[in-house]
Amino acid sequence: MSGHVTYAVVGLGSAGSFALRSLARAGHSVVGIEAGGVANDRSAVGGDTRLYRRLYLEGPEYHDLLERALELWGDANRTSPDSFVQCGALSIVEAASEAADTLSRYGERFGIPYRRLDGDELRREYPQHLCGPSEIGFLDLSGGFVRTDVVVRQAVEDARTAGAEVVEEQVLSVESTEAGAQVVTAAGTWQVEKVVVAAGARSGMLLEAVRRHTEPRRLLMTWFQAQEPVAYAPRSFPVFTRETGDHHMYGAPALDGRHVKVSGIVSHQPLEFEAGGYDYGQGPKQEELRTCEAAVAASFAGLHPVPVRSAVYPDLYSADRGFILDWADRHTRIFAATGFSGKGFKMCCALGEHAAQVLSGEAARLPAFALSRFDR
């Protein structure tokens, strides 16, 4: 399939789906191209949920995007009820740590509503976590989780309703000239004025400017059975991150009443795609599962430590773990929205909207996420 439209979006996952929706709702002629099917399980959309944290340890440069995302996730709930569940977000850190100081400063600077729980309060209110005497908690009252497949599929449907064309084809190349850009697929060529490339872990295959500063990595996610489901329901168990001593993990409450997501335990190793550039090994290694079992047994009360479900999902990590939101060509025709480094989904609706606005000239790119930073 081929044609002529004003804009194209390559990759309709986390950011791409919302870029497509924003462009279509603004009345632009746009096509969205997705190789694996909308909301497929072989992308960063897989894994059911992602955490939303407003009290953000990673830095103030993400604040505006997080605030806009909070507005957009609220809008999403009106269309798809319970696609964004604000059950709170609990950050567990060492009391005497830079992380604790950073969270306090962030909350005070931006007026984020939160509760600081001392060790006794943390263990009393959230006994599901087996916390040590030096650990404290920060409960972000605006936090919660996003249902990944629900919001992505709804964004694409919204885009279709607004007039976007959606095709399922694998993109072979994206090139630009002073006059425009062309997107070559296995079925034909699309001639466009500008294009957003939001192909996740596969973005570097299409853009050399991205490939030089990124690496695809494997994110292992695991789920564990709760012995007492009520203790791990959203009303009792906030989403969480834990960065203390030997504990490095994050998770979400049980969506089905029984199976609790606890992930991030093993480091994100490099991922290799198979010939053809799409498929990869989605199964975990046995030693990774044994590491997860030991960590869960030591960290939680009331979870069976053997995972009932596990899968590997791909994401693209930049050299400094910051986002890439920038023009990837000298003609400013190809805008890269990628390199989200394991932390993009919580604000992907805002990322997609921003990419669409830069493409259409309604917004300037964000200097903190420019490609030029890697050359300094």
Count of individual beta strands: 21
| Ends distance | 41 Å
Computed structural class: alpha/beta
What is the correct CATH architecture of the largest domain? Answer: 3-Layer(bba) Sandwich
Mean pLDDT: 96
Query: CATH topology of the largest domain, which one?
Result: FAD/NAD(P)-binding domain
In what order do the strands lie side by side in the largest sheet? 7-8-6-16-17-18-15-19
Q: What number of domains?
A: 2
- In this structure, how is the largest beta sheet organized? 8 strands, mixed
Elements, N to C (H/E): EEHEEHEEHEHEEHEEEEEHHEEEEHEEEH
The CATH superfamily label of the largest domain reads FAD/NAD(P)-binding domain
Alpha carbon gyration radius: 21 Å
Poorly predicted sequence stretches spanning 5 or more consecutive residues? none
Shape summary: globular
Tell me the number of helical segments per DSSP (H or I, 4 or more residues long). Answer: 9
Reading off the top of the CATH hierarchy, the class of the largest domain is best stated as Alpha Beta
- The helix content is 25-40%
Beta-sheet strand percentage? Answer: 25-35%
